[in-house]
Amino acid sequence: MRTRAATHVGRPAELAALSAVLGEARRGRGTTAFLTGEPGIGKSRLLREVLGCAVDAEMVVLRGRGSVTGPPVPFRPLTEALMSVARTLDPELIRQLGPYQRVLGRLVPDWEDPGGQYGDASMVVLGEAVLRLTALVGRERGCVLALDDLHEADPETLAVVDYLAGNLSGQPVAVVAAVRTESPAAHLLAEEVCRRNDGVAFPLARLGRPEVHELVSTCLETEPALIPDPVSDRLFHDSAGNPLMVEELLHSMIATGELVHAQKAWRLTGTTVGSVPPTLVRLISTRADRLGAGGSRLLSVAALLGRRFQLTLVQQVLGLDDQHLLNDVQSAVDAQLLAPDEGIPGWYAFQHPLAVDALRSRLGPGELARTARQAAEAVEVVHPGLPGEWCQLTARLRERAGERTAAARMYLECGRRATVAGAPGSAVAVLERAREVLGGPQDLAQHHSLLTELLEALLQALADDGQLDRALAVAEELTGLAPGDRTRQIDRHIRLAWAAQVAGHWAQGDAQVTAARDCLPGAATEEQLASLDAVAAYLSVLSPAVDRMDRCVGLARSAARRAESAGLPLVVCQAWYILGFAARERDMAESDACFRRCLDCAVEHGLTAWRNYALVGLGGNAWLTGGDAGPLRRAHQELLRGGALTLAQNAAAVLGLDRVLAADFERAEEELDASLAGSRGLRLVGVTHYVLMARVVLAAHRGRRDQMLEALTEFTRNGGDESGEALLVHGLGRAVCALLEEDRATAELDMARVAAEQELSQSPFHLDGHHGLGLLLEVLAGRAGDERLHEVAAIDAAGMRWNRHFVALAEAVLAGRRGDSAGASEAMRRADLDSRPFAMARCLGLRLVAESAADEGWGRPREWLREAEEYFHRAEVWPVAGACRTILRRLGEPVRQRRSGTDRIPEALRRLGVTAREFEVLEMMPGKLSNKALAARLHISPRTVEKHVASLLQKTGLPDRGALFDQVADLLLRE
Asked: Are 118 and 36 in contact (CB under 8 A)?
């Protein structure tokens, strides 16, 4: 007889709340829900009920479980969840994943790149890929990602869940996970997610006496009134309200004849017949014994394999034929100890994890070791090479067999595989388990070589996982194992130095470089010397030294020379890339040559990541030198196709700034908004600083001080003032905004600040005005002459197209002052050519030099002022447009009377705050045009039209677009 409840009992409030979570997800307001509690409390059963509700609502359901066949396997729950949908997903939806499909190749084998490349290895990038896939499949009816036994999951899966929880707002996705409260990592994650309001926890309490009575009646399929109260009283007392314990105890009472069904009712045969097993362990053991020797032995072997197990392995250990095997399995299923695993033929699972411990404990030490050894040998036969989780399971079995050395070696192999697969957290966990298996210090002599290998692997995993402090401790331990082995010590210091560089910790990285150099005499190989110089070069860029870029160049050249001699292509690429980066200020042609050498080496040796870096470097140079963003845009598309999303975000940020400098402000705003969302989603702090800087510059170049100050506040709040982009904020942002307000004194103060900071340290950025706009302002103020001009022009950064335009203007002013009309004309001709990609900067430059030209009698100031006045009037930068008209009048030129954009707006609408651009949109609305049609008429983007329409609705108090259409005639006539 079945003693499992057919329906869920005692959780109506939780089920109602979880149903609401699903409803919110269907409406595009996703969140994360954690079902928490002790083993047997009903987490998995409630999860099944929730998924039933989701299926009834026609939501897409993705379900995965934590690994229960040994140590956690990287990404197992996510792989299981995504595999079902991946097999049936519409090819069009797959195409919409873009570069994220390649990233998901590490979870979905069918999407794996033939070359084994997954793009970015970051857990954040993988989390974003999972988010995009679930949002795509759930965009019509919503999606549920259900993760059962999350407490059994690996650190990488927990990291992805953490990312999902923080980014589900606005997505049609609900994540529902079952977590045991005694599991530290998973339960801490649940608490942290809920603390920051990114999710909600549903702690499941034990059942009360009435609920136990209801559960018993459900299990027995009997009306509650027909269940004797003493039965429920006893079950409640002995189970303490744990639903699983209730079911198991009830099964035992029936099996022993203590509770019988007679005359359509249930009754106790006596209050003292038999004895109630004190624990669930005792109950399961008793039930296993009833299956006979064959069934009991089968369950014990299966318990060693884990909660889920492959039946073929059990058969291999026991040597049973198919008929006897299936008979024993069916008996265990009938006894409610086993159940077929859902959706995986040939696999079975124990009904509850406590059954695994109970059955395993029945084996004596000798039998346990012997059976575990046989099971390990069976796995090795059935799964040659031990792919995936089989390696970890075999290591656990060797450990149970008492074969410590063999187990440690297998754990070591698991850790190395996890590190290569980009799962350093899992690698750390399994490698630390290997250390425990090897034993204490008394065993060092016996395992010295293996322990050294293991600690080397652990050091690598910790460094890759960003656990620098723990990595340092392991490095010290390794030094103690082989205090005289300086060659290995150097390798460890280099590895730690790279970890510090990636984490942005210059001081710690520099300390590792110093320690490595102390070991060099007589110990270092040429390969180590090259690697040491390379990492020191990259750390130099982070250092506070005034000459940090000069140091970087010297070290990188040494690294390149050594690496090329020793045949180290990776170090060669590292060296030539950083040389290209450093050469930008000195010589752009040299920078190009360095990036090309990096590219050639990367292509020759198949180093995809460094090929991507080189392409971005070359694209960036083309943009800086010639104002041509085409190569960088092509590199960006290549990065997206290749799944290199982190580097693609870097390129996207630069391309957003390009839109700003080109005065394509509407598209710049859209691209920078998207770039900011991407960089924050991927937690790219450096890229976020750059995008926030570009948003400051965007507002500044439109002459919108209030917006600029808001953007500047956000830049500061995110730590931007300590970044290299801080100088760009002042020279490319604030100074330009001041000039657009005709406040030259403030602009000069901002440029003076840039100059002072440049004296203190070498900057990796070159558009902060120090090599262009600042020079022009100095010349116009009479503080700089030809000597200063030649000094700045000699710096290669002054040859970057944005800077080159302002340098040419400064040259024209100086030539005009000394009466060299031909020289001034030639300089203005070059300024005209260089400024063509930069509409706003071009007209600002003309306004600045026109006044000097008019006063000193050279050039065509009237023509320049009219061009500038026309541009700034259309751009609604009234101070500059007004200044141009004032100077023209002073020169005796007739000036057309302008009506500002706001003059055309009816007074009633002006009082509501309607802007000139919003009024233009309103004027076209009688035609009931779509956003796309309005955008085409006004030469702006549909998204910008949408923003203007939304603003008009808010300001006029109208409910929707239809009402705006109906009222537009009245609005246009208001006075």
From this structure: no
